[in-house]
Amino acid sequence: MALRRCWRLTGLLLRLPAPPGSSSPVGRLTVSSFINTYGGFKSAEFQLRRFSSEARNTDVSYERLKQLLSYGKAVVVDVREPWELREYGLVPGSVNVPLGQVNTALQLDPEEFREKYDGVMPTRTDKIVFLCLAGIRSKTALNTAVALGYRDAQHYPGGWQDWAEREQHK
User: Fold this and answer.
1) Largest CB tally within 10 Å, which of 49, 139, 160, 169?
2) Torsions phi, psi of 130, nearest 5?
3) pLDDT number for residue 57
4) How far is CA 98 from the centre of its chain?
5) How confident is the model at residue 25 (pLDDT cuts 50, 70, 90)?
6) Which of 29, 37, 32 is nearest to 47 (CA)?
7) What is the pLDDT of residues 35-93, one digit of tens each?
8) How far apart are CA 135 and CA 157, in angstroms?
9) Is 134 a residue whose pLDDT tops 80?
């Protein structure tokens, strides 16, 4: 009951017009800007994340991917098929989980994941970077992981093709 009232209040606040001089469009006022705008609520003990229509940047650059791999700060998942790894090569330190298996794999028990994919299963709070041949399948895998509750999932849009080219020119 209390939760229902809280959601109603949130809905009401989201429909309030923006105060004069603010940059929030009418009808899109966020709870966080309401708290910051009206003096009576400045001492609130909580802070809500600002809602935005802008998408979070989920792309990882070549340089950033190299850093993450060298420091072991992310689980890198290559979503290409096994034959592609044999034919083209692989990114050292990555775990191969074909795109068609990503949804199921990310819901496995960690020990089952290790046995099947010979790598560490990421937790929902781990940084995960998906890659494929050219960046299209990795974006699909990213969307799947986000839908499953993985909060720090990203992808390498250049894929193996970009990786191999940059590694040759080092």
Assistant:
1) 160
2) -95, 145
3) 83
4) 18
5) very low
6) 32
7) 343 444 433 333 334 444 445 789 999 999 999 999 999 999 999 999 999 999 999 99
8) 4
9) yes
Q: Which of 17-26, 32-41, 76-85, 116-125 has the lowest mean pLDDT?
A: 32-41
Counting every residue, how long is the chain?
A: 170
Q: What is the 3-state secondary structure (H, E, C) of the chain?
A: CHHHHHHHHHHHHHHCCCCCCCCCCCCCCCHHHHHHHCHHHCCCCCCCCCCCCCCCCCECCHHHHHHHHHHCCCEEEECCCHHHHHHHCCCCCCEECCHHHHHHHCCCCHHHHHHHHCCCCCCCCCEEEEECCCCHHHHHHHHHHHHCCCCEEEECCCHHHHHHHHHHCC
| Two structure tokens written together for 59 | 């792309």
| Amino acid at the residue 130 | F
Cα distance between residue 86 and residue 28, in whole Å: 51
Give the gyration radius of the chain's Cα atoms. Answer: 21
Query: Which residue is associated with the tokens 């819901």?
Result: 107
- Among all chains, which residue has been given the structure tokens 């959601």? 7
∠ CA(154), CA(78), CA(117), 5° rounding? Answer: 115
Q: Is the pTM of this model over 0.90?
A: no
